[in-house]
Amino acid sequence: MNIAIVGTGYVGLVTGVCFSEMGFNVTCVDVDEKKIAMLRQAQSPIFEPGLPALLEKNINNRRLQFTTRLVDVIDDVEVVFSAVGTPPDEDGSADLQYVLDVARTIGQNIKKYMLVITKSTVPVGTAEKVKKTINEELEKRGVKVEFDVASNPEFLKEGSAVNDFMHPDRVVCGVESEHARKILELIYRPFILNGHQVIITDIPSAEMIKYAANAMLATRISFMNEIANLCERVGANVDMVRKGIGSDTRIGSKFLYPGIGYGGSCFPKDVKALIKTAEENGQTLQILKAVEDVNIHQKGVLFEKVKKYYHDDLKGKTIAILGLSFKPNTDDMREAPALALIDKLLEAECNVKAFDPTAMTECYRRIGDSITYCNDLYETATDADALLLVTEWPEFRIINFPKLKSLMKKAVIFDGRNIYNPEEVHLNGFDYFAIGK
How many separate domains does the chain show? Predict the structure, then answer.
């Protein structure tokens, strides 16, 4: 089967590479000529463990190609996955211009049956808009061409996206025709044979599942951050509380780790989009509004701890930051807590030094030379008045505390991810502040 994937961001590129690994002939399409040129040379434009090797392998096997024009391959493919971006509009709703651009191109050029599958995260009702757009273009041409639309939301985690795709918890396929159902079952047959769950739904339900899943995970994070902040006030230890409630099988232990707020490309925009969808349909999602408010507040918690420690006198202080990406194993800084933290520190006239294993270039692209970029943990800590752990990269977990203390101007650590043992840190002569204890 020949497949086209439109969009080579995290979702599109991982989807295209993994489908080619499964034996499909895949053409990835993107209007960014520079990105396509990189990909043709087997150079991944994103940092994602395991992706570069599969990219090179399937290019060499001639199962994976790249182009800037969907029209060049549209006659040769049976299925088009739309995986273009859906950035938040000013009012929080998902911007569907790129999704509808893809639909418009398809409507202007198809000559035979095609299944058009939306892979991007889109609001309920988007498939109907895609279908309407294609039909409008067909009417302009004065032709009738059969096609189906479907929804196949992604559930990939940055940092483990390849493994998530190849070994999914579930595959959700929203369809409205038996023909579309059979094609999707054929595409995902390898997963069915391997025992992975493939869930067939109507299209609106599939579109809602993605938003509901991300909203639930965001809710758990904000809930736990609220509990952590209360633990600090009443003298409880959030780690013990987390273990106590996580052992309840009705609750489970995942996404109960407190910290300094969620970021990334999914949770913030998807929560906003779901809130907006509810408003457009006469409903107020009060819980999700609270989830969003808590997250905004939580991104300032570490700054407030530093500010309190130094009695509101931060001017001229040198602050060392470990970790810039919104989570480990990615260079993605979209909505990253580090950005909010840096803004507050610079506003307080601090000197900020930072190190991240992969996100330094991305950080520089976003904020330029307003901070000092360092080569490792210890260079970052040198002459610092405080060390702030922001992203829990594995290499930050084991620290030579005596060496660290000898380099810092003031021995104090603010742990935004609760990765250090308080007793060990204190025994090495540090003041230590974590989240929720």
Answer: 3
- In the chain, which stretches have pLDDT less than 70? none
CB atoms within 10 A of CB 366: 15
- What is the Cβ-side half-sphere exposure of residue 2, based on CA atoms within 13 angstroms? 10
266 catalytic? Reply is yes
Catalytic choice (18, 231, 266, 363):
266
279/306 same-domain check: no
Please, what's the b/e burial string for 345-354 (b: 16 or more CB within 10 A of its CB; e: otherwise)? beebebbbbb
The rounded Cα 221 to chain-centroid distance in angstroms is: 15
31 burial level (CB within 10 Å; 0-12, 13-18, 19+): middle
37/181 same-domain check = yes
Single out the residue in 297, 315, 341 at which a domain terminates.
Answer: 297
Maximum Cα–Cα distance for the chain, whole Å?
79
Residues 59-110: tens digit of each pLDDT: 999 999 999 999 999 999 999 999 999 887 777 778 899 999 999 999 999 9
pTM of the model: 0.90
Domain that holds residue 82: 2-201
CA-based angle 55:59:65, to the nearest 5?
A: 105
One DSSP character per residue, 35-58 reads HHHHHHTT--SS--TTHHHHHHHH
What pLDDT does residue 241 have? Answer: 97
Residue at a domain's end among 244, 269, 297? 297
Tokens representing residue 351 in the block: 């000197």
Both 30 and 169 in a single domain? Answer: yes
What's 238's domain CATH number? 1.10.1040.10
